[in-house]
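Appendix B, Record 12. Input sequence as logged:
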Amino acid sequence: MPTIVKQVALVIIAWLCVVTPIMIVVSNYTAHVVMTVEVQYLSSLLGFVFAVVASFSVAMTIVQRRRRAKILSQHQTFDNALQNKKRETLERYMTANFGDVTTRQNVRYYEVAPHQNMTPQTTQDLFKENDCL
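Logged structural output:
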């Protein structure tokens, strides 16, 4: 099931959860008391506001999805040169600390020495040092 179908189904269920209690209260109220002018005005106002908000939301969703698809198809969303520089920086770091690529890929068991452990900020620090940010 596509994501958009799931999202639409969830939105419909959510709106039903909002509208159903309101309809129950209004129907019980109108069964016992004759609707006054204020209640009629309020219900028509709320109905109109709901219709405007719903149509605006659907229209903006359609516009944003088209715009996003157009931008993603026309432009790269990342800098290739910067990505290559980051990849090379990380490769140099890994080679210096853990050996060359073939050794790292072919070894079955490798025990990391305590001084080789990477901190959470290691990659960010590497990128700052090598001007990759």
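The longest helix spans residues 37-74.
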